[in-house]
Amino acid sequence: MMTFRCLTTARAACIALTLGAAGLAVAALQASTYASAEPPGEGAPQAEQRIAIEVVVRFKDDRIVKDIADTFWKDRALAALKFEAFRRGRSEMANATLARVSYSNELILAFPCDAACRTQPGPAARALADRLARAADVAYAEPNVTFQPASP
Fold first, then answer.
1. pLDDT by residue (tens digit) across 27-45?
2. CB 117 within 8 A of CB 31
3. d(CA 90, CA 80)
4. For the whole prediction, is pTM greater than 0.85?
5. How does DSSP classify residue 43?
6. Alpha carbon 100 to chain centroid distance?
7. Spatial separation of the C-alpha atoms in residues 38 and 42, rounded to whole Å
8. 119 vs 1, 67, 74, 143, CA distance in Å?
9. What would the pLDDT profile of 18-27 be if each residue is shown by its tens digit?
10. Where in the chain are the domains?
11. Distance separating alpha carbons of residues 53 and 40, to the nearest angstrom
12. Separation of alpha carbons 116 and 95, rounded Å
């Protein structure tokens, strides 16, 4: 029995040292990667920021999206795939992607924003929400936007 415990302790120490060394190697690699990266604005290409309009959608019967909502909290990629299958054949959800799910099973859908809606997202968001709200099984659809007061 004592030999087993010592062997387990020795094995645990060996594993800890190995993982510790691997962790240090990863940290060193990450540090060198960040140190060699050019700061933004100094020759580094800027990724185009993707802007999306979000709409909060609640269905009259939660069971319609329950599987998507339950899956979202466990595996977001799988939930996105399930949403893609769900939205097929629903013209009001064309171009929509699943951004997130609320705790009350509302789907927060993201729609791509064109150049016109970047300056005035309110009307575009309202139009999308109205289009979604017209579906027979939708309880409500509201834009998920924050309006800022215009500066003088």
1. 332 332 223 333 444 444 4
2. no
3. 16
4. no
5. T
6. 6
7. 6
8. 73, 36, 36, 16
9. 444 433 333 3
10. 1-42, 52-143
11. 26
12. 17
